[in-house]
Fold this protein.
Amino acid sequence: MIDEAFNQAKKAKNLSVVIFIDLNKFKAINDTMGHGVGDKVLIDVASRLASLNSSNLQTARFGGDQFVLLAKNLASNRDSAIDETKKLIRIVNALFNPSIDVEATNYNMSVSLGYCLFPDALKKSDDAIKYADIAMYEAKREKIATGLEYLPHMSERLSNKEAYIREMRYGLLHNEFMLYYQPQYNDKNEIIGAEALLRWNNPKRGMESPQVYIPIAEESNLILDIGDWVIEQACRDIQKLEQLNLPANFQKIAINVSPK
């Protein structure tokens, strides 16, 4: 489908677009309500998107909760093609204004969208989907409902983030993470426990700020492995603390865990 549209666009010297669509918070529905409900939501979404199909516009499920929309023969002028794409994105968003009703429950769904015009400077049709996918993740990260066009710096940012995740994974395996304990006191100024604070001593950058690495760990699901490590290390430290002559009021170690 994309290959044919790509070749047609090159011959006609018109621009077409691939829009990558991802359902927001769909995983929570699947996890809490079950895959049966999740499947019915996907069927409803597919039906709404299919209502847009025409000779120049086709929709397809890409996989999971992701869909692709292909709009052909937009315009030969880039600005006009972008305007048409933005109109189409507004139409897609409007499709989700009525809630999705499944088994007497209303689900207010929204989507994140990224798009890539082609042929533009693309060498092959596969790049259009890949770049639209990257733009969609940028839109999701920045919570932009109106969609984002792919720009080259997005690939660089994604590459840097993936390298950073690899660094985190390596650091977790090679004891670069540690727990610091911040005392907790009651209103009588008696120590009653401590809160475990996660710190990463990065060999390249020194003590890395949690404000940087925690959000990236959350996005990548590496936060699950980090959370396991925190729990296990806190338990090892509690075992050591129990050997010390601590005040009787010292009763607990608090740890932070991801909602995931």
